[in-house]
């Protein structure tokens, strides 16, 4: 089985390719959390994978909640792997995720990573279509390579997006993640059409359409920006207006292979 969490569809793209290539179930961590279906048995599968993005050079809040609440049965020889998707590097996320698995008595066999379009638009601008298409093709090739490693059950650290200052990087920047998860930083313009796409896609079910506009019902979210990137009117923004840390005019992006229907 392959567990995944994805905001823009980048991690879904990788996870789905692995699921098809390994002929194993694809399981959304967000859906499992919402439904409180947290018992899984990977003993017959032989492999068990996790695919998700790096947030603030660490593990996303939703993934931490999922791992802390799941019951996962494995054999001693079950091949357990993780694939990180990232805009830059993975920071110390691999070590932090390994600790989470140890807490539920699961041993990590291999670590992989794939660089993709960085969707953190409060800082980074979405590149043009040619650049986006090249990144998707590159991710496809890298995922196929990872698939070969998994099929051969090769163990070890295959993370190609490491930083030699990973530990320091995560120690300094990951604590900021909790602050920026505050939903008060989202704002909605009059361009909103109340289409409810943001409400449907929110992985934690934090958003509700009230008086024809999205309202964040909780003080914090997992900060995946799924709501912001799926909005067809680009009515949702994050950050302070007229300030560098603002998503306005930075573009929007969803992986072309992301699930439709939201």
Could you please describe the fold and organization of this structure?
This protein has 262 residues and is α/β, with parallel strands linked by helices. It folds into two domains: 174 residues, 3-Layer(aba) Sandwich (Rossmann fold), CATH 3.40.50; 57 residues, 2-Layer Sandwich (Alpha-Beta Plaits), CATH 3.30.70.20. It contains eight helices and twelve strands. It has a six-stranded parallel beta sheet. A two-stranded parallel ribbon has the order 3-5. A two-stranded antiparallel sheet has the order 9-12. Helix 2 crosses helix 3. The longest helix has 23 residues. The mean pLDDT is 95.
The oligomeric state of the chains shown is single chain
Mean pLDDT: 95
Distance between the amino and carboxyl termini? 24 Å
Considering DSSP H and I runs of 4 or more, what fraction of the residues is helical?
Answer: 25-40%
Break the fold down into its secondary structure elements and pairings:
Elements: E1 2-4, H1 10-22, E2 26-28, H2 29-35, E3 39-41, E4 47-53, H3 61-69, E5 71-73, E6 79-86, H4 93-103, E7 110-115, H5 129-151, E8 156-157, H6 166-180, E9 186-188, H7 197-201, E10 207-210, E11 213-216, H8 226-230, E12 236-238
Parallel strand pairs: 1-2, 1-4, 3-5, 4-6, 6-7, 7-8
Antiparallel strand pairs: 9-12, 10-11
